[in-house]
Specification:
Number of helices: 14
Strand content: under 5%
Mean pLDDT: 94
Order of helices and strands: HHHHHHHHHHHHHH
Length: about 210
């Protein structure tokens, strides 16, 4: 009820930001989907002023709090665009919960993350030894997509390569990302179908 009231107040709810940050970093949003959704709405309404408090927590010694902070930023979507560099750094962590939450945050922020995050995510797809991280990178790129003016960071080429990954989870992730990117990927997909002889690449056909 308090969150609903704050949502109704709108941007004037900024004085409640400290309490909202504490709530987002608590265990409550993990067990209450309705509360989690409404909390995200309030944070988005308050806007970019809510971001620095969570960026600070991305460096907390407690891995649980780092992941919760990343999930709070994800709930804010594009409003949290200023956190992209910090989420990229968190995704490099050797702790899987850090990396997974950071990749999910980049995915949720979407297109505003392209310029900063896409080059790193392409590098993950092309060379990370861990299949889970390559898969999380495909999910992130599916949310980020490519700009209408062109794919300067070569996301589509990296996802096409991921369609041939030895891990099925990575292939499925690349399939989903390319399907969301849509028409800009079609020329390169058609080129891929012409590679070699015999059976066409299965996942490329699935995307088409």
């Amino acid at each position: 009820a308090a969150l609903a009231a704050l949502a109704g107040i709108g941007v004037d709810a900024k004085p409640a930001l400290a309490g909202l940050t504490r709530l987002a970093l608590s265990a409550h949003p993990e067990t209450d989907a309705e509360l989690r959704e409404l909390l995200g709405v309030v944070l988005r309404i308050i806007g970019p002023d809510a971001v620095p408090g969570f960026i600070k927590e991305l460096k907390n010694p407690d891995a649980l709090l780092r992941a919760r902070a990343a999930r709070a930023l994800a709930a804010m979507g594009a409003v949290a665009a200023t956190a992209v560099p910090d989420l990229v750094e968190l995704s490099k962590s050797a702790v899987d919960s850090d990396a997974q939450a950071a990749f999910a945050g980049l995915q949720a922020i979407g297109p505003p993350a392209y310029a900063v995050a896409a080059p790193y995510l392409v590098t993950v797809l092309r060379g990370d030894p861990f299949a889970d991280r390559r898969m999380w990178a495909t999910w992130a790129l599916g949310g980020i997509r490519v700009p209408a003016e062109g794919d300067a960071k070569q996301v589509i080429d990296a996802l096409l390569l991921a369609l041939l990954d030895t891990d099925d989870g990575v292939c499925r992730g690349a399939h989903g990302a390319l399907a969301r990117i849509g028409a800009p990927a079609l020329p390169r997909l058609r080129d891929m179908l012409k590679l070699g002889e015999g059976e066409a690449p299965y996942w490329a056909v699935r995307v088409l």
